[in-house]
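Reopening: PA14 domain-containing protein still failing for me.
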Amino acid sequence: MNTTLKSACVAVALLLPSAAMSAPLTLTPANPQPSAGNLTPGLAVNYALRNHGRSLVDAARVLKKGKPGTPLRGLSYEDTKDGENVLTTEHSEKIAAAISGYIKFPASGSYVLEFLSNDGLKIVIGEQEVGLYDGVHACGYVGEQEVTVPQAGYYTLDAIYFQRKGSACLLMEWGPDSDGLEQVPDSAFFH
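Support: Ran it again with your exact input. Result attached.
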């Protein structure tokens, strides 16, 4: 295989989500656990508008000058139609978002996590990268990730997301296995 073709194949492989589930990751609970009375439902978000980038690196760069936005209700933003607003902005394209807060797992045990994004998403929960899907693409699955949750409670959540143009989506699913995935209820997210 010539060097140019080999480099192109490696680049494509890095941009596409993993087809097979990665090895299980053990999440680290927030320490200390936040008091429920000190939390607000949803996730905090900072936005950078007019993001002309096409990657998570570009999004991270413009987010250095991001401004707080209306908190997200959770990670339950279905695929939009062209021209509809992205997340909680009043804009329909060229958005970068830094998302932070907590997710509350109701019980310890093994979970399978899955995300859908349009366009790029990098998400870290409980100090583990559980989803990565870079580049410009239609609403699609990131790739399942099995995690071990050592105790019920709150786990930190940090994500970088961007949407270039066209439609947009950002969703999270969880379940005991690949066949039992359900959308994570908005009531599981706090900041």
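The radius of gyration is 17 Å. If you still see a failure, please send the error message rather than a screenshot.
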